[in-house]
Structure formats: structure tokens, C-alpha cells
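Person: Please comment on this record:
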Amino acid sequence: MFITTAKCEGIGECVKACPTDAIRLIDGKAFSCITCGACADECPNKAIQQNKYGGFVVDRAKCNLCGICEYICPVNSIKIEDDTVKGICARCGLCEEACPVNARIDAFNLIEERQLKFLEALDFAVKIPKKRKPLKKEVKRTNVITDPEECIKCRRCQYYCPTGAIIVDLEEEGFCSECRICEDVCPVGAIKDTTIDPEKCTLCLKCMEECPNNAIYTDDFTVKIRKPEKELEGVIVSCLNCGLCASACETGALRMIDGKMRYDPSLCEECEEKPCLDACPVGTLRLGSDGRLKGYCVSCGKCVESCDIYEARSFQEVKWDGTVSEDCISCGTCAEVCPKDAITLKKGSIEVDFDRCILCEKCGIHCPTDAIPKTTMRKKSIKDGFTLIDDRLCIKCGLCMETCPEDAITKTPENIMVVDEDKCIYCGACNNICPAKAILFEREFSLSK
């Protein structure tokens, strides 16, 4: 919630800026909705819902103007005017920005206990649930990380990974990536530094069979290696050891034991749906030709050992304290895709419940502005979608225009909010901030190339 400090001079700019009329002046001081949620709990039509900013919005399509929210509000903030429920804070933050003396502050966490005690003292019949405070201040896990500066995408680690937990996609196939696997498998030591000694070569073709890039071929009883003219470009993705697959596994075939993934195929045979496959945030988990799962890291370290020249793979402890970059546009994508409901949206930032977060990086993978840090090269981008503003529900507050990072929303002379589809990137920022739930929004993600 946003509160007013002693600095308030009663100028009223916050009152003018509030799109939901949730602020009023009492004895020359600004007073507003305390976002306690009592209105949402008691609404018989479930028309009042908490948004991803921690505020509350009214779905006018469900609201029948019964007035129970107005009656139950412990601070008399809610009122019904012009067939519209007003006075409920959506936590958009415009009041804080509008205050010329910086008297409005976000005190959602600072005074939560005091707020709850105040409500309890009023002795209302409504039970106000206490917000659980996370015990941890950061989240961490240990797994094998790829250094993108050192990795040349040679596929050597992919070849030696016993569980297929590493996938390397190259833009061009059929060329030598200098993985040196041919050197490892040549029974007569005829290959050195991607060069074949024809005097030693016995034409057993073991190198050609094992080459992960299909870069070795024969020409007139001579084995040759097809080398690229330029550096090969690609993406390497590996299991994050986050444990999402184990959480989704219904038979217990996948388990996280002492921080390491373990798999029992005998238990997996009982499951037909395989929900673990959809749970994997990086897409390495898949079914092998034998019907067994592959693509999960067992932390054996074989990839680290095999990457002995480039030293691009190493065990690391990954940490995150919830920090995001200034590129955050408050679109809510992270909160939407988080499988653990660990993210709460704040204006220009996010709040992470580290008791729930398992550092699966799904938020970073889907973040349209790359504001959330991630270790994986896996990336999903918004492929398509649509954004439509229902004028029957719109309250003309203009919040969607304020929050849109692409200036894709404008107001017509007829006072109708419209979306420019040529500019819209379907980020969802407008949908999350709309206090009237007037925006119809859909989008589709796809892997970035």
C-alpha cells in the first residue's frame, strides 16, 4: 500500500493522479485505501481480485454493484459512483510520482504488521489473513554452468554427457567444430589437431561414425574433414538442476537427492502422461528411443572433465537476490510464467518469495527485456498475440498509456483507448496495470533463434 508521511501539505496532486479515486484529503492530509483485501474476500461475485502488483482491481463484467465492498471497507475508502466501484487501490504508484513534496511512499512491507493490528482493533467480522514473510533473502543452487565467452559450441560436452543433459544447436551443420572426438576414438592415433595422417589411417571409419557434426567424409578411399570458413555460431543449453521435473513427476521416478537429480526408470514406466517433460524450463528433458527419460543432469562432472582445453564448463553456485535491471517494464511476464508463484509484480521491479523460488530461470527465459539475470542461453520470445481494450469496461484512467513501453496505446478524440498493433509487442504491461480489467490479452511464445 501507499501511505502519506508528515511531509504532506494537502496539495492534492496525488488525489488527481489516482485513476481509481482511492485517495481523499482528510484534515488536509491524503488518506487512501490500505489494500487489506477485505473487499475481495467478501465480494459475492468474485469481481474484486488482487493483481500482480499486490493491489486490487474490479472486474466490471462481474460486478453487479451490490455495495457489499462499500459496506465492508474498514477505512470507508470504497464508494459507488456513476455505476462504477471506486476507491480501491491498484498499487499503480502514480500517486507517489505525482506528489511534489515526496510525501507518498510505498509502505507495503514497512508497516504491514501495524496495518494488520489496526484492522484487528476495529473488530470487524472479516478475517484479515496475515501475509507470510519469506525466511530466505536469496535463493541458490549448484549446477554446471557454461561460460559463453570460452565455449566454442564444439559439442564435446554433449557427446560425453551420459544422460544427454546438454544440447548444442549450431546454425550450420556438417562442419568441423574442433571437438576432437575423432582424435579420441581413432584406434591408430591417425588424427591430430583436426588433421588426418593418411599414412596411419586404416579407413576404419570410426571417426566418421562418431563425429557429432557429420563433418567427416570419404573421397576416393581417403578420409577428410570438412572445415568451416568462419567461426561456427550456435546455442548451448544444459539442465539447470532446478528440480522442476522432480516436482512434476507423479510416480517419484525423478527425485532430487542431496541436491543431485536421480532417475529410476522402473517407476517411470507407470506414467503415461510424462508431465515432467513440460515442466523442464530449458527443454533438455525428453524421451529417448528406448522410452526412457534423458536430458537430466546427474552432476557427474563428465562435461567439465571433457572440456579440458577450453574450460568452458564448471560447477558453480548460482545465487539470486531478486535484483532486476532498469530494463524492467513491469509487464508481469515473470509472475505469469513462474511455476512456483514466487514473484509479485511491483512498479518497475519485482518482489521474490525465496521460500518458493527454486531458481529455475523460467522468468529470465521469458522476460521480453532480459531484465532478469539467467545462466542459460535458452530464450523464449513473444511470437504473436493480440491486445484489445473493451470500451464498455474501460474507465479512461490512462494507466495503460502510462505503462506501455512502446507508446502503442493512444486515446482518440472520442475518448476511446485504442491499441496500435504495429507497435504493440504483447508484453502485457497494460493488462497487468488496468484497474478495470478492461483489456483482452493473449500472447504466444516461441524459441528465439
Q: What stands out?
A: Residues 124-128 have pLDDT under 50 and may be disordered. The longest strand covers residues 380-389.
